[in-house]
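Reply to dn_fold:

You asked what the input looked like. This is it:
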Amino acid sequence: MTIRFLSHGGRAPSFSAGALLLCAILLSAFAARADTSPPLKLALFDFELEDFSAGASVPAGAANNAEQLQRVTDEARRRVAQSGRYTVVDVSSADAEPVKAHALRNCDGCDAGIALRLGAEQSFVGVVTRISRTEYTVRFQIRDARTGAIISNKATDLRMGADYSWDRGAAWLIQNRLLASQDQQ
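and this is what came back:
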């Protein structure tokens, strides 16, 4: 089946091969430019624990909590860095009290300023909330380092889980909420 567009006088419009080639080149240049935007610099701070469980005041689990928080932080950094959308900025030199106390979740956005001083464009604060020994919430919040505006705020629940599942929750959240939402933009 052939479709012909007729113009005045019954003639098909003519396009020069050069004009079509120029359009193809421009379209491919725009597509290539969109795919090569530099990765954002992200200050991904250590995950923090917010413990509302009945055993929150028992110090016996502190070492295990620290180990699991390190695992979830490492997994989040790995996933984010592998995406190619972000360059993870080293936060080890951050000496602000909320960073040292693992209390960025309570500092009313101070993470943005800290991230900016570290050379990042965005800050990432992750929190594991323990509701009980088998119920957790893993969440993160990303802010623009210059303005402090919240860019993303995502969470997922883990039920019938254990502390060793925190990193899996963070991995799922990053893959299916942070990175997937950017695929749709």
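The beta strands are 40-44, 48-51, 86-89, 122-132, 135-144, 150-159.
Hope that clears it up.
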